[in-house]
Amino acid sequence: MPNVTKHNFGAGPCVLPQDVLKKAADAVMNWDEQGLSVLEVSHRSPAFEAVVKKTETLVRELLQVPEDYSVLFLQGGASLQFCMVPMNFLRDGATYLDGGFFGKKAIKEAELFGPVNRDITQITGDYFHCTSNNTIEGSQMKSFPDVPNLICDMSSDIFSRPINVSEFALIYAGAQKNMGPAGMTLVIARDAFLDDVKHQVPAMLDYRVYRDNGSMYNTPPVFAIYAAMLNLQWLQSTGGVPAIYKQNKAKAEMLYAEIDRNSLFTGTASVPERSLMNVTFKTHEPLLEPVFLAYAESKGLVGIKGYRTVGGFRASLYNALPLTSVIALVDAMQEFENSNIY
Ligand code: PLP
User: What is the domain range of residue 73?
Assistant: First the structure.
C-alpha cells in the first residue's frame, strides 16, 4: 500500500481514495470470492457485463444524464477524441475555443478534417468545441455558451461539479482524474447527434459502434472500468456531485486565500477563471521555486511541480484529495514564509 502520510497533489494519472484502491487490489487477487482475478474473468460473462451496466448507471445517476443520451466507455484517452470528434462530426467546418494546451492539440487534429474557426464571437460550423478545465494553466470555464452542438473536453473536471448534460451534444473525458485509472475514456453523447453522421467511419472510431455494442465491440479496458465503478460508488456514498462540489470549493478557496495572503506566492490564472481542480501559482522570486518544492516534499506534499512548459507550482485538488491535505499545504506555505529557509 502507498505511504498514507503522503499528500498527493499530482495532476494525474488518477488520485483514488484508499478504500477504493484496497477494494480494487482485492479484486485483482480474488474477485468477489470467485477464485479468479477481475483481470481474468471473461468480459462477456454476466458478472462483468453487470459491472459495465452498473458503471453506466452510476454515470447516469451522478450526472443526471437524460434518457436520450448514450454513455460510452472507449479507449485511446481524451487525445483520441481530439481526432474522433472531427472525424465523425466535422463536415463544413467547426468553431474551437483556443483556450489552452489541450484545446490547441484538439484544434491541430481538427484541422486535418476541415476548416477551424477560432473566433468565438462568430460561432459557426458543425459544432463548437471547448475545454471545461485547462489542467495545465489552471483555468476553468464557469459557464458554457448556449449553442446548438456544444462539444466539451471535461477530462479534468468531470464529476467535480454539477453540469447540465442537456446543454451538450457530446462530452468526453479521459477517466484518469476523477473517474478512475487511465485506460478508459468516457463519452456522453446525444443520440440524435450521433445519428446525424451520414458518412462512413472506421468501426473503432465510430461512436455508434460503441453504443450499439454496449461499449463491448472489442475487449474493453476491464480493470479501468471496474475501478471506475468502485470509485463512482464511493462518490455516490459521499453524497454525489453536489456534496463533492461543496468540498472542492472549500479546498480551492482555502488554497487561493493563502496564495493571495502569502507574501512569497502569487496565483497565475486570472482570478475569475481560477480552477477548482488545478491551482496554479508561483513564487514572486523565481530562485525560491526549487527551495519551496524541496521543502514541500520534505513535508510529504508531492506532485506540486508545475507542468514542464509552464513552471511554477500546480496543486491538483481532485475529488479524492482530502481537505486535510490542503491544510497541510497551506501550513507548509505559512511555515515557509515565517522561516529563514529561503
Ligand atoms: N484534455 C485535458 C483537459 C487533459 O487534462 C488531458 C490530460 O491531462 C487530455 C486532454 C489528454 O488526455 P489523455 O492523456 O487521456 O489523452
Answer: 18-237
Atom of ligand 1 nearest to the CA of 135: 5
Output the CA 47–ligand 1 centroid distance in Å.
31
Q: Which three cell numbers stand for residue 126?
A: 458543425
Residues 334 and 188 reside in one and the same domain: no
In a domain, 2, yes or no: no
Instruction: Out of 97, 130, 135, give the residue to mutate to test ligand 1, the one with the largest number of ligand atoms within 8 Å of its CB.
Output: 135
Residue 138 counted as domain residue? yes
Q: What is the DSSP string of 87-102?
A: HHH-SS-EEE---SHH
Model pLDDT for residues 98-141, shown as the tens digit of each residue: 989 999 999 999 999 999 999 999 999 999 999 999 999 999 99
Residue with cell 506566492: 265
225 vs 182: CA distance, rounded Å: 10
Query: Quick one: what percent of the chain has pLDDT higher than 90?
Result: 94
Q: What Rg, from alpha-carbon coordinates, does the chain have?
A: 21
Q: Write the pLDDT tens digit of every residue in 205-261.
A: 999 999 999 999 999 999 999 999 999 999 999 999 999 999 999 999 999 999 999
Ligand 1 within 6 A of CB of 77: yes
Which residue, by CA, sits nearest to atom 2 of ligand 1? 155
- Atom 9 in ligand 1: which residue has the minimum CA distance? 78
Q: What is the ipTM of this complex?
A: 0.99
Q: Which residues contribute to the annotated binding site?
A: 44, 78-79, 102, 135, 153, 176, 218-219
Q: Which of 237, 268, 286 is the last residue of a domain?
A: 237
102 lines ligand 1 (CB under 6 A): yes
Task: Provide the whole-model pTM.
Answer: 0.96
For residue 88, what is its C-alpha cell? 465523425
